[in-house]
C-alpha cells in the first residue's frame, strides 16, 4: 500500500481512482462499511482505491484547543485501511489555508487534478470545503462538472445509535471498552513506548510495562482492565503478545499524581520491555480504581484481578 503525506507525494503518472474521504479515526464499523463499498467499486471498475484523511484533526484547526482524543495512530489507521482493500492513503495536512478552500477548489485541486477521480464514496453526512458548506449533494453536482460519480452511504447503526468516533470516545471515557470494541469491530488499542516508572509492580510481584502514549490518545477511564500487551516492530507489526491485566490511573494507594497506563503480562516476570514500542488492547473493565488501606490489601486485590483477567482472556 502507498502512503502519501500530502498531494506532492502523489506520483505524477497516477491514473484514475476510486476515492473515499474522511478522518477515519478508529476505522470503526461505520468506516468499514463505507470503505468496503469503495473497494467493491474499485474492483468493478479496475481502479485503485485511495483513502483521503487529514492531519491534524480538522477540529484542532477550526477550533484550536478542541483536538479530540484519537482512537488510533496515523500508522495504525493506514494499516487498518489497507486491510479493507485500500491501495493508497493520502494524508492531507489540514491547515488554515486548506480549510479555506471552497468546495469546488477542494474537488478540483485534490480529487480531479491529483487523483483523477472516477468515483467517490463517502458517508451520507459528509461535509467539505470552507465552513463545511459542501455536502453529498454538492459533491454529486460537481461530479457532473468534473466527470465522476458519487455514492453517499447510509451511516451504520448499532442498537439504534449511529456508530461514530465521537460515540466511541464517550464509551471509552466511561470505561466501557467492551461496547467500544463492538463498535470498532476489534478491541480499542493504545500504543506507546515502554518507559521506566516507579517499579512498584515489580516490587509487589506484578512487573508492569508503563506505556507512554502520544498526546491526544484516547485513554479509557481510570480502572483495572483485562486485555493484551504486545510489542511492535518498526512497521507496527506485532512481535510478541501476552494476555494482560491493565491499570489506568494515578496509583492512589501510593498517593500518585501522574496518570499512567500499565500492563502486567500474566505470569511473566522475566520480560524487559523498556524502550520498545508496545500496544495495549482492551477487552473488558474489571473494576474502578480504589485506594487501599495497606499494601497487603492491594496485593490481594491484584491477585484477584489477575485471575479474572486470565479467565476473560482465555475466553476470547
Structure explained in plain terms:
This protein is an alpha/beta fold. It folds into 2 domains: 2-158, HUPs (Rossmann fold), CATH 3.40.50.620; 187-314, Riboflavin kinase-like (Elongation Factor Tu (Ef-tu), domain 3), CATH 2.40.30. The protein contains 10 helices and 14 strands. The protein has helices spanning 29-45, 58-62, 74-83, 96-99, 103-112, 136-146, 165-173, 177-184, 200-204, 295-314; strands at residues 2-5, 17-21, 49-55, 88-93, 117-123, 149-153, 157-158, 161-162, 188-195, 209-212, 223-232, 238-249, 260-265, 277-287. The protein has a 6-stranded parallel β-sheet with strand order 1-4-3-2-5-6, with helices on both faces. Helix 1 (29-45) links the parallel strand 2 (17-21) and strand 3 (49-55). Helix 5 (103-112) packs across helix 6 (136-146) and helix 7 packs antiparallel against helix 8 (177-184). The mean pLDDT is 93.
Which short descriptors sum up this protein?
316 residues; alpha/beta; Rossmann fold; Elongation Factor Tu (Ef-tu), domain 3; six-stranded antiparallel beta barrel; 10 helices; elongated
